[in-house]
Specification:
Length: 242
């Protein structure tokens, strides 16, 4: 069986319809479990106090904001190379979710940064790259709405996605590129010196898993909606021509 079989809208609708309920249930269970565990059953940090518990919202949303754009990059390249409509519609469906994740990351980062840095915002390299990524999400969504031709919109938004990927990577690695930034290093790292303590790490992993599955569920749901919407427009066009 080839993975390209799922580029067929009918096959995608069948498979996603079967997966969606299970993924949605798992996403709700893991997200609720991770947030409740993290916010109510972990101790305060000896330096950051209870503020550290924002990590259970901030880190998963920031990770998803970057990785959703990377997923959009992959599906956009597939569209440009192989012209599979499901891949273009999946990228379109993922964009509002990525925009929301980026906004959550920016807001929670401000609440986390204010007591730590003494300010709600600083032109730190990673924060600035994240703000630009947020603007790219807005531009991507606006470009889809501004172009009437679906294929033309898919082409131009795919190019925009490739350009915006630079800022997605900068958002991920800005702390490594510019050591003078205020933003801390990675919370999850192979380097034990940078890794958060296990008492925070385990519920954080559960929360991240919930966010990942939540994105998958929402992306499948929105892609299915986009496919149905395109079918409806095609039927309306045929009726007008007949």
């Amino acid at each position: 069986m080839s993975i390209w079989e799922y580029a067929n809208p009918k096959r995608f609708m069948q498979t996603s319809g079967a997966l969606l309920p299970w993924v949605s249930i798992a996403a709700v269970i893991l997200t609720v479990a991770g947030l409740v565990w993290g916010f109510f059953f972990t101790p305060d940090d000896y330096r950051q106090g209870s503020t550290v518990k924002i990590i259970y919202l901030h880190v998963p949303s920031a990770m998803m904001a970057i990785n959703i754009w990377i997923m959009m990059l992959v599906t956009s390249i597939i569209w440009l190379v192989r012209r599979h409509h499901v891949s273009a519609l999946a990228a379109k469906a993922a964009a509002p979710i990525g925009l929301t994740m980026t906004l959550i990351a920016l807001v929670t980062g401000a609440f986390w940064g204010q007591p730590m840095w003494g300010t709600w915002w600083a032109w730190d390299p990673r924060l600035t790259a994240f703000l630009i990524l947020f603007l790219f999400y807005l531009g991507y969504i606006a470009l889809w709405e501004a172009i009437e031709s679906p294929d033309g919109a898919a082409d131009l938004t795919s190019i925009l996605c490739i350009v915006g990927s630079v800022f997605a990577l900068l958002s991920r690695y800005a702390v490594l590129f510019w050591n003078q930034g205020l933003h801390q290093g990675a919370s999850l790292s192979m380097d034990k010196r940078e890794h958060v303590a296990d008492v925070f790490w385990l519920p954080l992993l559960v929360s991240i898993a919930g966010f990942v599955l939540g994105f998958v569920a929402l992306m499948l749901l929105r892609t299915r909606t986009e496919i149905r919407s395109r079918r409806l427009r095609a039927l309306e066009a045929r009726e007008r021509m007949s």
